Amino acid sequence: MRQPAPNPDHTRMSPNESRNQALAARDLRHLWHPCTQMHDHAGTVPMLPIVRGEGPWLVDADGRRYLDGISSWWTNLFGHANPRIGAALKQQLDTLEHVIFAGFTHEPAIELAERLAQITPAGLERVFLADNGSAAIEVALKMSFHYWLNQGAGQKTRFIALTGSYHGETLGALSVSDVALYRKTYAPLLLTPVLAPSPDAYEAEPGESAEACAARRLGELRVLLEQHAHETCAVIVEPLVQCAGGMRMYHPSYLTGLRALCDEFGVHFIADEIAVGFGRTGTLFACEQAGVSPDFMCLSKGLTGGFLPLSAVLTTTPVYEAFYAEYNAGKAFLHSHSYTGNPLACRAALATLDIFRDEPVLERNRELAAHLARRLAPLREHPQVADVRQTGMIAAVELVRDKATRAPYPSEERRGLRVYLHGLEHGALLRPLGNVVYFMPPYVVSTDELDHLVDVAIAGIERAIAD
């Protein structure tokens, strides 16, 4: 007679081990985690096994709760285990899990493309689906280059990106990124972009407004285009917020000027809205705040509400038509992923869009953002805070050694890690970018939960700067 399987909650546990410890030990025997020096988990940084999510909260194997202040790498919009998205997925599971997307199609992908074309800026009518944000950037870069090649402009092989930009960690996406932490090691493998000075308002000259800073940087971009437009496929930017580069924020007028310059010099405008899209900046898409339509818009992260990996690259009919020809013309766009157009991911995306359609998401986000701004305002006077900045549901606090000179703390001191560890000890997931403590919570967070997040962060900042 077959014996019942042991309870998986207790498998391989010693009598004095907690469930967290047992699962962490099993993890560390085999798994290699992203953006992590695994040696840290030998004692400095705990490995926390999460067994379930409840709205904006995560629950570990020992029952401790953590308020997810970063939306699990900026993906989760409407809470963990959201019942509406979950129900849509369960229904889809009973009909179709996946099918090859070359020569075949299905209604979830068709409807998703239709709805994305309806809600994104005007002119974005063609939708190419991929697996994740980095893949979307790869698609946009290749599609832009291939467009010019099909148009007889094969000399256009370069891209212009902003200083401090981050677009992903595959080789193409990393090639148009400028965060040394990610790029330096792999530089010999990468394309070399032309770097335009970021319009980051934190770098404005004394007395210069964010709008004036943007105008000055547009002038510098113009000079670069005068020199390089003949060899440039596209300018790629993260609209309004350069997220992984330190939550650097800039005035929407830069996007307006960028659109005009791209038109004037005959280069594409790629908008990387992977992190800033779907309500994160206060409007459904960040480009709306400048009233512009890019030639390519890359979407991912919040597209599925944080449930499944999926990305979309939206582009214009003229771009699509540059590839539309007889087979023997050799103009087809040759890019694919095994799970392109996955029906489950498309269904999760549709359920996410349904929530935006049926609920006052953006209105509530504005109220939450205003509350967060009020709570963070006193930090502007803190002697080790050089800047408190916010765009919609993204807020950041810049810690510095010297407020007057803005001299940073040395990176090897890992002050941000102290904030992270303090957060875990007090029920909050905060994961600073270097010495930038930021907030990007799910949209279902309450004002009381925001208060908890800010209170823990403030205490963590005091702990981080103590010597």
UniProtKB/TrEMBL annotation:
Keywords, alphabetical: Aminotransferase, Biotin biosynthesis, Cytoplasm, Pyridoxal phosphate, S-adenosyl-L-methionine, Transferase
Amino-acid positions noted as binding pyridoxal 5'-phosphate in the UniProt annotation, renumbered to this chain: 133-134, 272, 337-338
Purpose: Catalyzes the transfer of the alpha-amino group from S-adenosyl-L-methionine (SAM) to 7-keto-8-aminopelargonic acid (KAPA) to form 7,8-diaminopelargonic acid (DAPA). It is the only aminotransferase known to utilize SAM as an amino donor.
Any one GO biological process: biotin biosynthetic process
UniProt-listed InterPro entries: Aminotrans_3 (IPR005814), Aminotrans_3_PPA_site (IPR049704), BioA (IPR005815), PyrdxlP-dep_Trfase (IPR015424), PyrdxlP-dep_Trfase_major (IPR015421), PyrdxlP-dep_Trfase_small (IPR015422)
Name of protein: Adenosylmethionine-8-amino-7-oxononanoate aminotransferase
UniProt GO MF annotations: adenosylmethionine-8-amino-7-oxononanoate transaminase activity; pyridoxal phosphate binding
Keyword Methyltransferase applies: no
Main localization (coarse): cytoplasm
Modified residues (N6-(pyridoxal phosphate)lysine): 301
PROSITE patterns: AA_TRANSFER_CLASS_3
Record site: Participates in the substrate recognition with KAPA and in a stacking interaction with the adenine ring of SAM: 35
GO CC annotation: cytoplasm
Subcellular location: Cytoplasm
CDD domains, per the entry: OAT_like
EC number assigned by the record: 2.6.1.62
Subunit description: Homodimer.
Entry binding sites for substrate: 73, 166, 301, 336, 431
Protein family according to the UniProt entry: Belongs to the class-III pyridoxal-phosphate-dependent aminotransferase family. BioA subfamily.
Organism: Dyella marensis
